[in-house]
Amino acid sequence: MTRTLVALSLGGLMMAAAAPALAQSQPGGGAPLTIQAVTDRPSLNLSAYGEVKVQPDMASITFGVVTEAPTAAEAMRLNAERMSQVMTALRRAGLNERDVQTAGLNLSAQYDYQQNEPPRLRGYQASNRVTVNIYDLTKVGSTADAVVAAGVNQIDGVSFGLRDPKAAENQARQLAVRALQEKAALYAQALGQPLGQIRSLSEGGGYTPRPPMPMYAARAVSMDAGGAETSVSGGELSVRIDITGVYDIGR
Fold this sequence. Notes:
Translation Initiation Factor IF3; 3 domains; 4-stranded antiparallel sheet; Alpha-Beta Plaits; single chain; disordered N terminus; alpha+beta; 3-stranded antiparallel sheet
């Protein structure tokens, strides 16, 4: 049995020239084999991006307490005592418990190695690391100083971010679409062809928190002793949206 198939466009985005389809029965009574030729219109495949600069409204600091002792129990006890002092310092700095999260807890044996001798157990090391979110950027430096004074001897770094990046992302999207439209119109004009509808649009990128920046290894400076407060600057964050679009051109 022979019939004619017509290719229909979906949503008015893709237009194709319909061609007759030929069908013929396969040997052995199998399903008919259909052959169809479709010719697409010329198109432009372009990409653009939109980018906005915004100031961060939060910071995260990851720090830890590392203790060593001859026994595992003693190393953990010393670590717990010092970490308790650190948590007290955080509460005094005005941080809530929900803004403090344990990032790692570790206990490991420590060995001394000498050539041609078996390893000798020196003791045990306990480590407790937490991540603190700070929403008042004027307190980042003073918070770091406070936890160091309370017993922190390891700071991984500080990172800045946005609590809600939606507004910045939407602004970047508008800039990206505007740039894509201008680029498509420019190409169509240079080619001497009318610009048609857009067939498809895809998006990439978006807000990505800035990776932690090294701050300092533990600094045993007491503010009561006249040490200067640590200076921390949030700077600006970049929010970028990348898009790719396909446009019809020509009649």
